[in-house]
Amino acid sequence: MPLPKLPTRMGVLLAPSNDAEPQADPIEVVAPPMLAAVPTARRTGAAEPSAVATQPASPAPVTQLKVSRKKTRLPVAKRKLFVLDTNVLLHDPNSLYKFEEHDIFLPMIVLEELDHQKKGMSEVARNARQVSRSLDGLAAGAKELDKGVPLDALGNQEALGTLMFQTSAMQAHLPIELPAGKADNVILSVVHALQGRYAKRQIILVSKDINMRLKARALGLQAEDYYNDHVLDDSDLLYDGVMPLPENFWTKHGKDVESWQQGGTTYYRIKGPLCSEFIVNEFVYFEGEMPLYAQVKEVSGKSAVLATLRDYSHGKNNVWGITARNREQNFALNLLMNPDCDFVSLLGQAGTGKTLLALASGLTQTLETKRYNEIIITRATVPVGDDIGFLPGTEEEKMLPWMGALEDNLEVLHLGANGSDLTGAAAGPDWSKNSTMELIRSRIKVKSMNFMRGRTFLNKFLIIDEAQNLTPKQMKTLVTRAGPGTKIVCLGNIAQIDTPYLTEGSSGLTYAVDRFKGWPHAGHITLQRGERSRLADYASEAL
């Protein structure tokens, strides 16, 4: 929501607007500006944010990182020659255009493997067909294919190198005898032959296959992973959405504080050196004699506007009978219950309450406040162990085995620990419980991601569970389904990725958190404490 007009003097109370939703008492505690000065504390496990909310470039090797500078074509001798493995093209069909001014070489066996992968409706098959169309478009305008094709021939201005195809047999005697006929060994033989043909150029094999890279290095060939899809090199640098304030915060930022109220929320405009490190919608907190819990609403140079939060740890502010058990859960509920926040991402290990909080806030805003007309739940169907095969029934029935977490959390939300209905009514006959569950289930739809393309969701509360198993492309496909009035909540644990070739740095969930950071209508929280049970908490640490 837009910030209210700044008052002419400090402490002026503005009357809440008539259309503002009534809210419970917010936390309005401001520490006095006379605290002992100590060195400014650095936040642990997070990168230092920039002065304004931007989308920073992802750390990656210089050869594959988009750098905002004037592009110039390098002489051929100074260009690197990257030999792409098939899995790179299948992983990212646009990888042909991600190597800036350097050249790309495609062995004939790679084209053969692309041909074998193009059939079917899977994501891999679609990527294979997209790569084939791109290669056909590039090769169609080439007069002499053996001399290479400019990679910017189809309008990709970032790619200034040349695409080279293998147009003749390349014989090479490897230092180690490897089985003939295997695609990986043929590619290694081609790389070895290229080193002899282009002795003055740097030849690099790019592959997502770890064993392929190990074999290349054992043969004295240079090999590396495909880094362009990596948002972060280290998952510890991922934005966590929370920033603790140092003990001397009010000493350095307590002068000329301006405060006002609107709609039950207190706003503070503060000035100081730490304000430039704030990110819009980031949560800040100070725990001491005079605690402060607030959310950053605006950042302008060395000035920032903070807004107090609703205290969801208090019983009167419960969400479908659920109260926050720790600081991060309170921050998460403030995002989930905020109608102005369209995209929310929650990270955390097993048992931190991600699904429970999302489902409770969805039920409250669907059945009580009528803000949304339906809850839609989907998830990536990647099995942990062996696949159990095809499942019978309709789309929703096929998805039910993947939705065990939904059933568990519905049971927690429906019945409290003492056997009472968490909606506030005492536990009655079984038919009353069943009717309540039927009402809840009628507003919850379980959908498969396979049928999401082309859809538009209007006034829906969309929960994407196990989002760490999505690729960035799949994440984009799901988030762009949102229509007017729809809220999307992404849940996941990047330490439990089951999709092949996805890492903590290249997961679609990591990609979304990094790209939405600082957008005024998005928020992110990393839940730290497990609240499932003492057994689950100990197992997460000890096992």
Structural features, described:
The protein is α/β, with parallel strands linked by helices. The chain folds into three domains: 93 residues, no CATH class; 163 residues, Rossmann fold (3-Layer(aba) Sandwich), CATH 3.40.50.1010; 224 residues, 3-Layer(aba) Sandwich (Rossmann fold), CATH 3.40.50.300. It is 26% helix and 16% strand. The protein is built from 14 helices and 19 strands. A seven-stranded mixed sheet has the order 1-9-10-13-12-11-8, with no helix packed on it. It has a six-stranded mixed sheet with strand order 4-5-3-2-6-7. A six-stranded parallel sheet has the order 16-15-17-18-14-19, sandwiched between helices. Helix 8 packs across helix 10. The protein is globular and about 75 Å long. The two termini are 44 Å apart.
